[in-house]
C-alpha cells in the first residue's frame, strides 16, 4: 500500500504546486520528511543535491529517488507517475482550450499576478538550502560568482560544476583541517 500512498502524496504535490520543481522543494520536504517521515532531513538534502545534479526534470528526479529509496523500482514508478500526471493532464487541458481564453483580460492578469509568487516560492528554498549548506558572508561569493558567470558571461554550467568539484577537492586536501 505504500506505493499507493507514494502516488497519492506526489500526485497532490504535482497538482497543487505552481512554479516548477524548485517551488516544490518545501512541499516535498513537508510531506516526505515531516508528515510521513519516510526519510530524515539529512537524507532529503542528499537526495536534493543528487536530483539537482542529474539531467531531467527536478521534481521527477526527486520523486523517483524518494520512491526508489522506499520501494525500489515500483516505488520510483508510483512516485514519478504521481508527480508527472497532474502536469500532463493540466497541460493537455490547457492545450485543448488555450486558444479560447488567451485574450481574456482577467486570465492574463491572473498569470501576471502568479509570477511574483512563483519567484518567492523559488527564493525561499534557495535561502533555506544556503543556510543548510553553511553559506555565509565569507563564502557567499562562490554561488553569486557562479550565477554571474552563467547568467552574464554565458559560461556553461558544466564547467562551473567541474571547477567547484576541483576547488572543493583542493580545499579539502590542502587547506582544511580535515585534509591535513
Outline the secondary-structure elements.
Layout: H1 2-16, H2 21-35, H3 41-53, H4 58-101, H5 105-132, H6 141-153, H7 157-175
Structural class: mainly alpha
Q: Uncertain regions: pLDDT < 50 for 5+ in a row?
A: none
- The topology string of helices and strands comes to HHHHHHH
* Rg, Å, rounded: 19 Å
> Treating each run of at least 4 consecutive H or I residues as one helix, how many helices?
7
Strand content: under 5%
Tally of strands: 0
| Assembly context of the chains | single chain
Can you give the mean pLDDT?
A: 86
Distance between the termini: 50 Å
Give the biggest sheet: none
Helix content: over 70%
How would you sum up the global shape?
A: globular
Task: Offer a quick outline of the entry.
The chain has 180 residues and is mostly helical. The chain has helices at 2-16, 21-35, 41-53, 58-101, 105-132, 141-153, 157-175.
Q: What keywords describe this structure?
A:
about 180 residues
Structural summary, described in words:
The protein has 180 residues and is mainly alpha-helical. The chain has 7 helices and no strands. 82% of the residues lie in helices and 0% in strands. Helix 1 (2-16) packs across helix 4. The longest helix is centred in the middle third of the chain and has 44 residues, at 58-101.
Amino acid at each position: 500500500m505504500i506505493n499507493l500512498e507514494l502516488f497519492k502524496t506526489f500526485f497532490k504535490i504535482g497538482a497543487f504546486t505552481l512554479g516548477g520543481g524548485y517551488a516544490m522543494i518545501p512541499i516535498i520536504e513537508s510531506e516526505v520528511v515531516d508528515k510521513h517521515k519516510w526519510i530524515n532531513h539529512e537524507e532529503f538534502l542528499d537526495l536534493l543535491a543528487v536530483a539537482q545534479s542529474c539531467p531531467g526534470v527536478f521534481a521527477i528526479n526527486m520523486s523517483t529517488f524518494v520512491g526508489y529509496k522506499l520501494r525500489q523500482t515500483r516505488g520510483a514508478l508510483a512516485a514519478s507517475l504521481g508527480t508527472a500526471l497532474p502536469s500532463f493532464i493540466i497541460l493537455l487541458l490547457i492545450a485543448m482550450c488555450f486558444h479560447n481564453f488567451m485574450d481574456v483580460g482577467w486570465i492574463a492578469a491572473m498569470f501576471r499576478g502568479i509570477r511574483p509568487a512563483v519567484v518567492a516560492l523559488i527564493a525561499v528554498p534557495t535561502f533555506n538550502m544556503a543556510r543548510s549548506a553553511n553559506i555565509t558572508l565569507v563564502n557567499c561569493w562562490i554561488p553569486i560568482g557562479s550565477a554571474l558567470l552563467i547568467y552574464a558571461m554565458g559560461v556553461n554550467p558544466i564547467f562551473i560544476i567541474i571547477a567547484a568539484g576541483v576547488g572543493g577537492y583542493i580545499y579539502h586536501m590542502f587547506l582544511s583541517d580535515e585534509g591535513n
